[in-house]
Design a protein that fits this description.
Length: 437
C-alpha cells in the first residue's frame, strides 16, 4: 500500500489522522466499542481461558523446579499490584484535571525470569508446544504434565528450532524458556532492540540474529526462515492465538488481587486499564481476559508512541494489519523499543476493535518524565516503554468520556500496566534517570 502519496486523501477520509501524521499527541475514543450483551463473535472464550489456567497450574511445579526464583510463588508467573498514591498526588499538583479514585501499578516489570509481560504469553506458547511434542511421543496424556527434564524429551526437543521476531522483551521470554527446555532458539532482533537484551539472550543460550530493519523486517525474516525448517516452530507475535491466550490469563490473577484488597468492580465502580501497546497482542490479551470476567465494567485504553501508533492507525482506517505507520509517512522510530512496531497484529486487531475503549499517543520525552516521576515518588524503576500507561488517567480526563458514560470519577479504580524493566542493567537505569534531569 502506498498511501503516503495520497496522505491528504487519507486525512480527508479519516480526520483523526491529521494529528497522528503531524506527530502530535492524540486521544482517540473507539466508536466501534461493543457492549458485552451485544451479539458479536470472538475467536476465544471463557472456556479457553479456564483450560489455559488449568494448563499453567499443572506445569507450575515444573516451572518452580527449573526456575528457583519462582519457588516462593509456587511456580506461578505472577506480579504484584501496588498502589501509587504518591505518584498520583505529584501528578495532580500540575494537572488542570485532578486524578480521582485509586491509582495502581500492575507490576509485570517484576515478573520472574523474563522481567516483562511477555513472560505470560511467551512461556505459555512454548510450554504448549513442548507439551504437544510430549503427547505425540506417547509419554503423557493430553491432561497430564510432563517432566521436560527427561532425557528422551531433551533429545527430542534438541531436534527442534523455535524462532521469534522481537524488539526485545518477547525475544527474552521465548529465548530463555526455549533454551531452558533444550530447544534450539533463534531470536530475530530489530534494529531498535537494546544491546543489553541481546547480550542477556546470548548468556541464556539463544542465538541472536540482528536485523538492519525494524520489527516488520525481523518478524518477516524470522517467520520465513523458521517455517522453511521441517523442525521449526515460529512464535508469531502478529498472528498467535496462543500468545494472546497466555496474556489473557493475567485477568484471573488481577481478579484475585482486587478481591484481596476489597475493591469492587462493577459498572458503578469501573476498572480503567491503561496498557502500553506494540502490535496489540499483550494488551489485547489482558483486555480480552478482563472483559470475560468483568464485562462492561472494564474500560481499557492503549498507549502508543507518536512515531509508532500502529494499532491506532489500523483501527482508525479499518485496515488493521493491512496498513503500517510508514504508509502514512511516519518513521516508526522511538526509544520505547517494546512499542516500536509499524504494523498491528492480525489476530489481535479483530478483537481489539470491539473491546478497546480508546487509544492515546505520547511523545518519547513524556515517557522519560513519567519514568523519573515514578522513581522519585515510589522508588519503582520501569523501562521507558512501560511508563506509557501512567499517563492514562490524565489523558482520558481531558476528554468527555467519563461524563458521557455517567461515571463518578471517585469510583474509578485506575490501573497502569507496567510491562517491563526489572532486568535493565544498573548503568542503563542511571542513564534513563539522568536523562530527565
Amino acid at each position: 500500500m502506498t498511501a503516503f502519496n495520497n496522505i491528504h486523501e487519507w486525512i480527508k477520509k479519516f480526520p483523526e489522522l491529521s494529528s497522528v501524521v503531524a506527530l502530535r499527541e492524540t486521544i482517540w475514543i473507539n466508536p466501534g466499542l461493543k457492549k458485552m450483551n451485544e451479539t458479536f463473535t470472538l475467536p476465544l472464550n471463557n472456556t479457553d481461558m479456564e483450560e489455559g489456567k488449568a494448563f499453567m497450574q499443572r506445569y507450575a511445579p515444573f516451572i518452580a523446579k527449573i526456575f528457583p526464583e519462582t519457588t516462593a510463588m509456587s511456580g506461578q508467573i505472577i506480579s504484584p499490584l501496588v498502589e501509587i498514591e504518591n505518584f498520583r498526588n505529584n501528578r495532580n499538583k500540575n494537572l488542570a484535571s485532578k486524578i480521582s479514585g485509586r491509582f495502581f501499578l500492575k507490576r509485570d516489570d517484576a515478573l520472574p525470569v523474563a522481567g516483562s509481560i511477555k513472560a505470560r504469553g511467551g512461556f505459555y506458547e512454548v510450554l504448549r508446544f513442548a507439551h504437544k511434542l510430549a503427547v505425540s511421543e506417547g509419554l503423557i496424556s493430553e491432561h497430564q504434565a510432563a517432566d521436560f527434564n527427561l532425557p528422551e524429551l531433551k533429545t527430542l526437543f534438541s531436534q527442534y528450532t523455535i524462532g521469534v521476531g522481537s524488539t526485545g522483551n518477547l525475544g527474552l521470554s521465548i529465548g530463555i524458556i526455549s533454551a531452558k527446555l533444550g530447544f534450539k532458539v533463534n531470536v530475530y532482533m530489530s534494529n531498535d532492540a537494546k544491546d543489553w537484551k541481546k547480550s542477556l539472550l546470548r548468556q541464556n543460550g539463544a542465538n541472536v540474529i540482528e536485523e538492519d530493519g525494524d520489527f516488520g523486517v525481523a518478524i518477516t525474516k524470522g517467520r520465513k526462515e523458521t517455517l522453511s525448517n521441517p523442525y521449526g516452530y515460529f512464535v508469531d507475535d502478529e498472528n498467535s492465538g496462543k500468545l494472546f491466550l497466555g496474556y489473557s490469563l493475567a485477568a484471573f490473577e488481577l481478579q484475585k488481587q482486587l478481591k484481596e484488597l476489597n475493591i469492587p468492580v462493577d459498572e458503578e465502580h469501573p476498572l480503567f486499564i491503561y496498557s502500553p501497546c506494540g502490535v496489540g497482542g499483550s494488551p489485547g490479551g489482558v483486555l480480552f481476559g478482563l472483559k470475560m470476567i468483568y464485562g462492561d465494567a472494564v474500560h481499557s485504553f492503549f498507549a502508543e508512541p507518536t512515531h509508532s501508533p500502529s494499532v491506532l492507525v489500523g483501527l482508525v482506517t479499518g485496515k488493521k494489519e493491512k496498513i503500517s505507520v510508514q504508509d502514512i509517512g511516519l518513521d516508526n522510530l522511538t526509544e520505547a523499543d517494546g512499542l516500536a512496531v509499524g504494523r498491528p497484529s492480525a489476530f489481535a486487531s479483530g478483537i481489539i476493535k470491539k473491546l478497546v475503549s480508546g487509544i492515546y499517543t505520547l511523545q518519547d520525552e513524556l515517557l522519560y518524565h513519567l519514568l523519573s516521576g515514578l522513581y522519585q515518588s515510589e522508588k519503582i524503576f520501569i523501562e521507558p516503554s512501560a511508563t506509557a500507561g501512567l499517563a492514562g488517567p490524565e489523558k482520558i480526563l481531558t476528554t468527555d468520556y467519563i461524563e458521557k458514560k455517567g461515571i463518578v470519577p471517585e469510583n474509578i479504580t485506575h490501573i497502569a500496566w507496567s510491562t517491563g524493566g526489572s532486568l535493565v542493567p544498573a548503568s542503563i537505569r542511571e542513564k534513563f534517570l539522568k536523562r530527565e534531569k
